[in-house]
Amino acid sequence: MATLYHYSLCPHSRFIRLALAEFGMEAELVEERVWERRREFLELNTAGTTPVFQEQNGLAVPGAGPIAEYLDETRGLALADRRLLPEGPGERVEVRRLLDWFNIKFHEEITGPLVLEKVMKRFMSRDEGGGPPEMSAIRAARANVRYHLRYISWLLAKRNWLAGARLSYADLAAAAHLSCVDYLGDVPWEEDEAARAWYARIKSRPSFRPLLSDRMPGMAPSAHYDNLDF
């Protein structure tokens, strides 16, 4: 069985967990506290970031983007019309563009600061960068959520899914990031019905169930986190 080194509230890890489930693949989950800089993990990924996917033969693929590309190259054709990275070059460009939007821009502006300040710092020592949360960073991230929801709505006004007519990596990446923010109770769903309806569709997929059962020690999720009719 393959192995996925991940962190429960790492959105990039959640993206790959969703992708693996959509591929019908099982992987052993190994939780990695990246701030501990564990030597064995750094040997798999010198960047020291999650996720890392390791095949049973020992091949290690680090990073959400490379893992997604690797899974498509090695298993994508078997999905036929359910392929998460479409065959057409223009369609593939759009999926990759949105992957960058969510895995880079959304993460830098929202998920990264919120998870660091509200979660990771609670488990990190002072030397590792732990301590009280920086409230200005949290307020900025919360404010940024709104325009990203509006962008999702703008995309959905013209498409069935974020990148086009079919479910793709773009939807899984966006939902993975929003699931982390939703766990923390920082998504104003009441302000955007279109984005909320799209997220409900993703949230209802079998691939999403394991994410909804995740719990952080000493930190319960928002009241509606695992409610499919939120």
Automatic annotation (TrEMBL):
GO terms for biological process: glutathione metabolic process. GO terms for molecular function: glutathione transferase activity. Residues 1-79 form the GST N-terminal domain. Keywords: Transferase. PROSITE patterns: GST_CTER (PS50405), GST_NTER (PS50404). Pfam families: GST_C, GST_N_3. CDD domains: GST_C_family, GST_N_family. It comes from the Bacteria. The keyword Ribosomal protein does not apply. Residues 88-230 form the GST C-terminal domain. Signal peptide: none annotated. Coiled coil: none annotated. Homodimer. This is Glutathione S-transferase.
